[in-house]
Amino acid sequence: MPVHHVPLSRLLRELLDHPEPGSPLTMNQLLMRSEGRGVYLLIILISLPFLLPTPFLGLSTPLGIIIITLALRHALELPPRLHRRVGDRPLPRSFQDRVLGGSVRMLNRLERWVKPRRDKWLLSPVARWINCGLISALAFMLAIPLPPFIPFTNSVPAIAIILISLSMMEEDGVLIWLGYAAVLGNVVFFGSLLLSVGVVVRHWSEWLEMLKSWT
Description:
This protein is mostly helical. It has one domain (8-214). Helix content is 65%, strand content 0%. The longest helix has 40 residues, at 175-214.
């Protein structure tokens, strides 16, 4: 199977080993120099903490908004950038060694299994719009401040975001269908959650009406 691009693991390793002279590595620089595919890597990195079963208190809203911003800018073919307060801040060396270095090792493993295949349709603008729209919708679910006692409200959309982002990043037209299945799982999960909340609200309303009839 022919490879259509330089593996992202190699690009990241070159960025870490050969930074621009006199210019500290920043998130925006990482996005610009990774041939646009770093957008998906950053989305994946932001989504990983949400795999915990309990909601990611305090950070779910801002991180969800960052994912939405990245996905929409990519759909509109705008330069991949974050706000300068975040994107132009130099990345600490510890972050580069632990997070980005760990990402290189993770990508080396993933690239054995996730690779360009059956990707002709996946490279079209329509597919990019659809997939970025799905990522944005899923990230909106992350950004909603849901009660912390409801488990998996973050991990369910995060799994779908990671699968779609990984498929787009590596142009894998096979894995993307697993991402779509995860999106369907989100519809079922949150639909059931809304239905359950509706049943509880209706039950409490009927109970309050009954109490009123007794007084």
